Amino acid sequence: MIHKITNEQKVGNAHIKILYPGKALKSVTDTGLGTIGRIDHANIGGNVTIKMHPHINDDILSYFRTGYAMHIDSEGYQAKVSRNKLMLMKAGKIFHHEEHMPEPLEGLQIFIRPKIKDDIPEVSFRDLEVSDSINEWRLLASPDSDSQLKFTSETWIYDISLKQSKEIGIPDFDKSKMTGLLYVFQGEVLLNANLSLTKGESLVFRNEDLKIQATENSELVLFIMNENSTYFDEGMYSGNQY
Protein backbone atom coordinates (compact mmCIF):
# COMPACT_ATOMS: atom_id res chain seq x y z
CA MET A 1 0.00 0.00 0.00
CA ILE A 2 1.22 3.48 -0.92
CA HIS A 3 -0.82 6.58 -0.09
CA LYS A 4 0.30 10.14 -0.86
CA ILE A 5 -0.67 12.96 1.52
CA THR A 6 -0.70 16.45 0.01
CA ASN A 7 -0.29 19.86 1.64
CA GLU A 8 -4.02 20.47 1.18
CA GLN A 9 -4.73 17.67 3.66
CA LYS A 10 -3.11 19.59 6.52
CA VAL A 11 -4.75 22.03 8.91
CA GLY A 12 -3.39 25.08 10.70
CA ASN A 13 -2.27 28.54 9.60
CA ALA A 14 0.60 30.35 7.90
CA HIS A 15 2.88 29.69 10.89
CA ILE A 16 2.15 26.05 11.71
CA LYS A 17 0.81 23.39 9.33
CA ILE A 18 -0.46 20.31 11.18
CA LEU A 19 -0.57 16.82 9.72
CA TYR A 20 -2.93 14.33 11.35
CA PRO A 21 -1.90 11.27 9.33
CA GLY A 22 -4.95 9.16 10.16
CA LYS A 23 -7.31 11.95 9.21
CA ALA A 24 -5.43 12.46 5.92
CA LEU A 25 -5.86 8.74 5.24
CA LYS A 26 -9.60 9.23 5.87
CA SER A 27 -9.67 7.09 8.98
CA VAL A 28 -12.95 7.62 10.82
CA THR A 29 -11.66 6.23 14.10
CA ASP A 30 -8.25 7.85 14.71
CA THR A 31 -6.69 11.14 13.66
CA GLY A 32 -3.25 9.61 14.20
CA LEU A 33 -1.54 6.63 12.64
CA GLY A 34 -0.38 4.05 15.15
CA THR A 35 2.22 5.69 17.38
CA ILE A 36 2.34 8.90 15.28
CA GLY A 37 -0.11 11.40 16.77
CA ARG A 38 0.61 14.46 14.66
CA ILE A 39 3.41 16.33 12.89
CA ASP A 40 3.66 20.14 13.04
CA HIS A 41 5.66 21.95 10.35
CA ALA A 42 6.48 25.34 11.86
CA ASN A 43 7.53 28.57 10.12
CA ILE A 44 7.75 31.14 12.90
CA GLY A 45 9.03 34.70 12.67
CA GLY A 46 11.66 36.07 15.02
CA ASN A 47 11.18 37.45 18.53
CA VAL A 48 8.33 35.08 19.38
CA THR A 49 7.71 33.60 22.83
CA ILE A 50 5.34 30.72 23.49
CA LYS A 51 4.67 31.11 27.19
CA MET A 52 4.75 28.31 29.74
CA HIS A 53 2.14 25.72 28.81
CA PRO A 54 1.37 22.09 29.66
CA HIS A 55 1.73 18.78 27.83
CA ILE A 56 0.20 15.56 29.09
CA ASN A 57 1.15 12.09 27.81
CA ASP A 58 2.92 13.41 24.70
CA ASP A 59 6.41 12.44 23.51
CA ILE A 60 7.59 15.47 21.51
CA LEU A 61 10.67 15.50 19.30
CA SER A 62 11.85 19.00 18.32
CA TYR A 63 13.61 18.93 14.95
CA PHE A 64 14.57 22.48 13.96
CA ARG A 65 16.46 23.14 10.72
CA THR A 66 16.77 26.93 10.65
CA GLY A 67 16.80 29.25 13.64
CA TYR A 68 16.66 28.05 17.23
CA ALA A 69 14.48 28.03 20.35
CA MET A 70 15.47 28.70 23.94
CA HIS A 71 13.71 26.04 26.00
CA ILE A 72 12.77 26.36 29.70
CA ASP A 73 10.69 23.74 31.51
CA SER A 74 9.12 22.73 34.79
CA GLU A 75 11.83 20.11 35.41
CA GLY A 76 14.48 22.84 35.57
CA TYR A 77 16.06 22.28 32.15
CA GLN A 78 17.21 25.20 30.00
CA ALA A 79 18.70 24.59 26.57
CA LYS A 80 19.16 26.04 23.09
CA VAL A 81 17.46 23.67 20.64
CA SER A 82 18.71 24.07 17.08
CA ARG A 83 19.82 22.38 13.86
CA ASN A 84 22.64 20.78 15.81
CA LYS A 85 20.77 19.96 19.03
CA LEU A 86 17.60 17.87 19.16
CA MET A 87 15.27 17.60 22.14
CA LEU A 88 12.85 14.87 23.19
CA MET A 89 10.29 15.82 25.83
CA LYS A 90 8.42 12.93 27.37
CA ALA A 91 5.61 14.73 29.13
CA GLY A 92 4.16 11.79 31.04
CA LYS A 93 1.62 12.74 33.68
CA ILE A 94 2.16 16.48 33.16
CA PHE A 95 4.96 18.72 32.00
CA HIS A 96 5.25 22.49 31.39
CA HIS A 97 7.64 24.31 29.10
CA GLU A 98 8.26 27.65 27.40
CA GLU A 99 10.02 28.49 24.14
CA HIS A 100 11.55 31.76 22.96
CA MET A 101 12.53 32.08 19.29
CA PRO A 102 14.67 35.20 18.80
CA GLU A 103 15.05 34.67 15.03
CA PRO A 104 12.96 33.05 12.27
CA LEU A 105 12.63 29.30 12.79
CA GLU A 106 11.57 26.43 10.54
CA GLY A 107 11.31 22.88 11.78
CA LEU A 108 9.13 20.02 12.90
CA GLN A 109 7.57 19.28 16.24
CA ILE A 110 6.69 15.60 16.16
CA PHE A 111 4.08 14.26 18.59
CA ILE A 112 4.63 10.55 19.25
CA ARG A 113 2.33 8.48 21.42
CA PRO A 114 3.94 7.01 24.55
CA LYS A 115 3.68 3.35 25.40
CA ILE A 116 1.84 3.91 28.68
CA LYS A 117 -0.19 6.59 30.42
CA ASP A 118 1.22 8.92 33.10
CA ASP A 119 4.88 7.97 32.89
CA ILE A 120 7.53 10.04 34.71
CA PRO A 121 8.32 13.28 32.81
CA GLU A 122 11.77 13.30 31.22
CA VAL A 123 13.75 15.55 28.87
CA SER A 124 16.73 14.40 26.81
CA PHE A 125 18.95 16.09 24.25
CA ARG A 126 21.16 14.97 21.41
CA ASP A 127 24.04 16.97 19.96
CA LEU A 128 24.47 16.07 16.30
CA GLU A 129 28.04 15.62 15.11
CA VAL A 130 27.09 17.09 11.71
CA SER A 131 24.05 19.15 10.71
CA ASP A 132 23.25 17.07 7.64
CA SER A 133 23.49 13.37 6.95
CA ILE A 134 24.46 13.49 3.29
CA ASN A 135 22.96 10.71 1.14
CA GLU A 136 22.72 8.35 4.12
CA TRP A 137 19.91 7.65 6.55
CA ARG A 138 20.65 8.80 10.12
CA LEU A 139 18.71 7.33 13.05
CA LEU A 140 17.58 10.22 15.27
CA ALA A 141 15.38 8.55 17.88
CA SER A 142 14.16 5.02 18.61
CA PRO A 143 13.05 2.63 21.36
CA ASP A 144 16.46 0.93 21.26
CA SER A 145 18.32 0.70 24.56
CA ASP A 146 21.39 2.57 23.29
CA SER A 147 19.45 5.43 21.73
CA GLN A 148 20.26 8.92 23.04
CA LEU A 149 16.67 9.95 22.30
CA LYS A 150 14.61 6.98 23.39
CA PHE A 151 10.91 6.44 22.75
CA THR A 152 8.91 4.09 24.96
CA SER A 153 6.69 3.10 22.01
CA GLU A 154 7.82 1.22 18.92
CA THR A 155 8.79 4.22 16.81
CA TRP A 156 11.95 4.93 14.80
CA ILE A 157 12.74 8.31 13.17
CA TYR A 158 15.45 8.89 10.55
CA ASP A 159 16.55 11.85 8.44
CA ILE A 160 18.65 12.37 5.32
CA SER A 161 19.90 15.19 3.10
CA LEU A 162 19.60 13.69 -0.36
CA LYS A 163 21.49 15.55 -3.05
CA GLN A 164 20.06 16.21 -6.50
CA SER A 165 19.90 13.09 -8.74
CA LYS A 166 20.96 10.77 -5.91
CA GLU A 167 18.85 7.65 -5.29
CA ILE A 168 18.41 5.65 -2.10
CA GLY A 169 16.21 2.91 -0.69
CA ILE A 170 14.77 2.78 2.83
CA PRO A 171 16.41 1.33 5.94
CA ASP A 172 16.00 -2.40 6.49
CA PHE A 173 13.02 -3.33 8.67
CA ASP A 174 10.32 -5.98 8.86
CA LYS A 175 7.87 -4.72 6.24
CA SER A 176 5.26 -7.31 7.24
CA LYS A 177 4.92 -5.71 10.68
CA MET A 178 5.89 -2.07 10.26
CA THR A 179 4.33 1.00 8.65
CA GLY A 180 6.37 3.85 7.18
CA LEU A 181 5.70 7.55 6.70
CA LEU A 182 8.09 9.57 4.52
CA TYR A 183 7.95 13.36 4.99
CA VAL A 184 9.55 15.87 2.61
CA PHE A 185 10.88 18.73 4.73
CA GLN A 186 12.62 20.49 1.83
CA GLY A 187 12.95 19.87 -1.88
CA GLU A 188 11.32 17.35 -4.20
CA VAL A 189 11.74 13.61 -4.70
CA LEU A 190 10.52 10.94 -7.10
CA LEU A 191 9.28 7.67 -5.60
CA ASN A 192 9.67 4.43 -7.57
CA ALA A 193 10.25 6.53 -10.70
CA ASN A 194 6.61 7.65 -10.98
CA LEU A 195 5.31 9.47 -7.87
CA SER A 196 6.46 12.99 -7.02
CA LEU A 197 6.53 14.46 -3.51
CA THR A 198 7.34 18.12 -2.84
CA LYS A 199 8.00 20.13 0.32
CA GLY A 200 5.45 19.43 3.04
CA GLU A 201 3.99 16.36 1.34
CA SER A 202 4.28 12.84 2.71
CA LEU A 203 3.73 9.20 1.88
CA VAL A 204 2.37 6.36 4.01
CA PHE A 205 3.44 2.88 2.94
CA ARG A 206 3.03 -0.71 4.07
CA ASN A 207 4.64 -3.86 2.61
CA GLU A 208 6.47 -1.82 -0.03
CA ASP A 209 10.03 -1.26 -1.15
CA LEU A 210 10.75 2.36 -2.05
CA LYS A 211 13.35 3.87 -4.32
CA ILE A 212 13.74 7.56 -3.64
CA GLN A 213 15.44 9.87 -6.12
CA ALA A 214 16.03 13.56 -5.41
CA THR A 215 15.01 15.77 -8.31
CA GLU A 216 16.61 18.65 -6.38
CA ASN A 217 18.55 18.88 -3.11
CA SER A 218 16.09 17.55 -0.53
CA GLU A 219 15.71 16.97 3.22
CA LEU A 220 13.60 13.99 4.25
CA VAL A 221 12.31 12.60 7.54
CA LEU A 222 11.29 8.94 7.75
CA PHE A 223 9.03 7.42 10.41
CA ILE A 224 8.88 3.66 10.97
CA MET A 225 6.46 2.28 13.54
CA ASN A 226 4.47 -0.75 14.58
CA GLU A 227 0.76 0.05 14.37
CA ASN A 228 -0.07 -3.13 16.31
CA SER A 229 2.21 -2.38 19.26
CA THR A 230 1.07 -1.00 22.62
CA TYR A 231 0.65 2.79 22.83
CA PHE A 232 -1.51 5.33 24.67
CA ASP A 233 -3.72 7.35 22.32
CA GLU A 234 -5.26 9.91 24.70
CA GLY A 235 -2.36 12.33 25.01
CA MET A 236 -3.07 16.06 25.06
CA TYR A 237 -1.78 16.63 21.51
CA SER A 238 -0.60 13.21 20.33
CA GLY A 239 -3.90 11.55 21.18
CA ASN A 240 -6.89 10.82 18.99
CA GLN A 241 -8.71 14.11 18.33
CA TYR A 242 -12.04 12.65 17.13
Give an account of the 3D structure.
The chain is mainly β and 242 residues long. The chain has one helix and 21 strands. The strands form four sheets. Strands 2-3-4-11-6-9-12 form a seven-stranded antiparallel sheet. A six-stranded antiparallel sheet has the order 1-19-16-21-14-13, with no helix packed on it. Strands 5-10-7-8 form a four-stranded antiparallel sheet, with no helix packed on it. Strand 7 (69-73) and strand 8 (78-81) form a beta hairpin. The chain is globular, with a radius of gyration of 17 Å. The mean pLDDT is 95.
If you average the pLDDT, what whole number results? 95
Rg for CA atoms: 17 Å
Order of helices and strands: EEEHEEEEEEEEEEEEEEEEEE
User: Biggest sheet: strands side by side, in what order?
Assistant: 2-3-4-11-6-9-12
Structural class given helices, strands, pairing?
A: mainly beta
The residue fraction in helices comes out at under 10%
Specify the overall morphology.
Answer: globular
Largest sheet: 7 strands, antiparallel
**Low-pLDDT ranges:** none
Number of helices: 1
Give a count of the beta strands, DSSP E runs of length 2 or more. Answer: 21
Report the portion of residues in β strands. over 45%
Distance between the termini: 24 Å
